[in-house]
Write a structure and sequence with these properties.
This protein is an alpha/beta fold and 251 residues long. The chain contains 8 helices and 7 strands. It has a single domain, classed as Rossmann fold (3-Layer(aba) Sandwich), CATH 3.40.50.
Length: 251
């Protein structure tokens, strides 16, 4: 599964690990020696990710958690530490897409759902992850923003607002904890071949391909590789960064 063992002895906590970017990143961490806590809304949704890690000789922990519920997030972090003894890397990747609509037609409950999961969920995860990292003397946090975090998206105001805000949250937290040996960065994927993209395009992935200057969708594994680099010792001088991996879509 891997060409290296950058994360032997490390513990990674990955939200949204059931599919797409979250699954690819969790498997990649495990492939380089990390013990991985897999977090998604149900444990059943995590079974394929967990099995892929077991098949490669890894040690996954599956945790059902709705990141918009602070009590469940706190319990998920505590369960990870109880099982593995520490928390070195947190990849806050859980998120949902909006139904396309212009601003005046967005229902308030639809707006709240996107912000509750994509932004508030990321904040709540960081709150408990960083508290643990402070206790143990350091760690790394990577948050999933989006190319939509640095540009407008017609029909996607709620999603773009949530992802712009994740970047501001990331930059501020990076300054808060720079002297505490805790690095906080954001990854900004473009149009990636995931179940979310399939839902958003209604199954017509060509719509997303046509937006990409490179003429193809990105692969979840390409995002995972960037997350692993940011989480590794080679990325030790990087904090507060927002790194686009998007085939030129946000240019």
């Amino acid at each position: 599964m891997s060409r290296a063992n950058r994360f032997v002895g490390k513990v990674a906590f990955v939200t949204g690990a059931a599919s797409g970017i979250g699954r690819a990143t969790a498997v990649a961490f495990a492939g380089e020696g990390a013990r991985v806590a897999l977090v998604d809304r149900t444990e059943d949704a995590l079974r394929h990710t967990a099995q892929a890690i077991r098949d490669a000789g890894g040690e996954p922990l599956t945790i059902a958690c709705d990141v918009s519920r602070p009590d469940e997030v706190e319990a998920a972090v505590a369960r990870t530490v109880a099982a593995f003894g520490r928390l070195d890397i947190a990849f806050n990747n859980a998120g949902v897409e909006n139904t396309a609509a212009p601003v005046a037609e967005i229902a308030l409950d639809a707006w709240d759902r996107i912000l509750d999961i994509n932004l508030r969920g990321t904040f709540v995860c960081m709150k408990h992850e960083i508290a643990q990292m402070l206790r143990q003397g350091g760690g790394v946090v990577v948050n999933t923003s989006s190319g939509a975090g640095i540009r407008g998206v017609a029909g996607g105001a709620s999603y773009a607002a949530s992802k712009h805000a994740v970047i501001g949250l990331t930059k501020s937290a990076a300054l808060d904890y720079a002297k505490s040996r805790i690095r906080v960065n954001a990854i900004l994927p473009g149009n990636i071949e995931t179940p979310m993209m399939d839902r958003f395009t209604g199954g017509d992935l060509q719509k997303a391909i046509d937006l990409e200057p490179v003429g193809r969708l990105g692969r979840p594994e390409e995002i995972a590789e960037a997350v692993l680099w940011m989480s590794s010792d080679l990325g030790a001088f990087v904090t507060g960064a927002s790194i686009s991996v998007d085939g030129g879509w946000s240019l």
